Amino acid sequence: MKRTAVNPWDWSLKLGYNQAEIIEGATRRVVCAGQTAVDDQGHPQHPGDMRAQISLALDNLEAVLEQAGFDLSDVTKLGVYATDVDEALKNFDVMGMRFGPHQVAPPMTLLGVTRLAIPGLLFEIEATAAA
């Protein structure tokens, strides 16, 4: 799969994402539901701790991707939902630590929401991946 970044401006690169990417040569695609900070029984973890919730949501995303035969290097689009955008952005270095080693900066949308599906959750991340 060949990825070509499209960035008419470079400001989004400082935040860790491309404005768009041209994806060529992909033969498989997976669309992941939003992943949150829950354990394997679906119970919320790390109440009130945005950083820990981001980390566990990413762990869960990686588990789903792995089960489907993908990893973070294959992610082509992210949707992020946070109950406190400012707090999420303060902890976005966690995203960089996870995606940086894969040298990808998938296009991303970050939305502030009043709440997520399960009370106590602060952060949710959904992804599309291709390979």
Q: Indicate the low-confidence ranges by residue numbers.
A: none
State the strand order across the main sheet.
3-6-4-5
Largest sheet: 4 strands, mixed
Number of helices: 3
State Rg.
14 Å
Q: Which overall shape is indicated by the principal axes computed on the Cα atoms?
A: globular
Question: What portion of residues belong to β-strands?
Answer: 25-35%
Distance between the termini: 6 Å
Report the helical percentage. Answer: 10-25%
Overall structural class, as computed from helix and strand content, comes to alpha+beta
Mean pLDDT: 96
Give the tally of β-strands: 6
- Helix and strand pattern: EEEHEHHEE
Task: Please give a structural write-up.
The protein is of the alpha+beta class and 131 residues long. It is built from 3 helices and 6 strands, in the order E-E-E-H-E-H-H-E-E.
List the helices and strands and how they pair.
Elements: E1 2-6, E2 20-24, E3 29-35, H1 50-67, E4 75-82, H2 85-90, H3 93-99, E5 108-112, E6 123-130
Quick overview of this protein structure:
This protein has helices spanning 50-67, 85-90, 93-99, and strands spanning 2-6, 20-24, 29-35, 75-82, 108-112, 123-130.
Feature tags:
alpha+beta, four-stranded mixed β-sheet, two-stranded antiparallel ribbon, 3 helices, 24% helix, 131 residues
